[in-house]
Amino acid sequence: MPPTLKQRLAQTQRPAGLPVMKQRWAGLGFFHWEADPELIAARLPAGLHVDTFASKAYLGVVPFFMERIRPVCLPPLPWLSWFHELNLRTYVHDDAGNPGVWFFSLDCNQPLAVVIARRAFNLPYKHAKMSSAVEGGIIRYQSRRMASPMPTADFTYPVPQTPQPAPAGSLEWFLVERYLLFSADARGNLHCGRVHHKPYLIEPMPAGKCSTTPFALNSFPEPETPPVSLLCAAAVNVTVFPLRMV
Questions:
Q1: 20 to 30 Å CA-CA from 168: which of 74, 152, 200, 225?
Q2: What pLDDT, in 10s, does the model give residues 135-187?
Q3: How far, in Å, CA of 64 to CA of 51, rounded?
Q4: What is the pLDDT of residues 47-94, one digit of tens each?
Q5: For 187, left (φ over 0), alpha (ψ -120 to 50), or beta?
């Protein structure tokens, strides 16, 4: 059953229970292309379905900075709590209509974080060499997956100047306001986990450079057209709740 607007709005509320982690997401760029729903559906585990907007499915490439990552009872550590992340994602819902995100890959330049995320959250993290620079309100971001012949993924996008919340029910809101992630363990069991943060403050990009290498790294055809949606977002403080089996 596709999610109702009520179900989508409910995901924005803080869930019950105790969180396990705190973190901050910054330098966010959202690059989205329309995608064939059947192509995506073929790559999803049992129990998940493609979530669409106006009957269209989307694949998103999201480069950003992970900051101040820590368990709720500990302070951040300089050598562990700051790193880069680049993901390829799509939008899904479960049999009950709960909307969320499915990650095809998450490239990261912090080796210990890769190991922890794989084991604790069953997420497909990959080791990568990554770098960035922020100058004059412009983020320049690079990522090259280790042990891969694929070229370096390059991104150039602005820091938002006057960002605003996305209107509820809009395409932008559909793409960015996601508070539930799904993952599958080695046995194929489906899990989900909640995050909570204030609504994103976003801004359309007048222009931005986005590599399509993440598509190739995940065996998707690389788009031949520009993204249909380009957004940058202000930093958000995020609370992470435990994973549970669906």
A1: 225
A2: 999 999 999 999 899 999 999 999 999 999 999 999 999 999 999 999 999 89
A3: 23
A4: 999 999 999 999 999 999 999 999 999 999 988 899 999 999 999 999
A5: alpha
CA distance 11 to 94: 13
Q: What is the pLDDT of residue 16?
A: 94
For residue 42, give the DSSP letter. Answer: T
Residue 91 near residue 57, CB atoms below 8 Å: yes
72 DSSP assignment: T
d(CA 30, CA 90): 12
Q: Which element (helix H / strand E) includes 187?
A: none
Q: Which residue has the tokens 């959202």?
A: 30
6: Cα separation from own chain's centroid = 22
The pLDDT of residue 184: 95
Contacts of 224 (CB under 8 A, 6+ apart): none
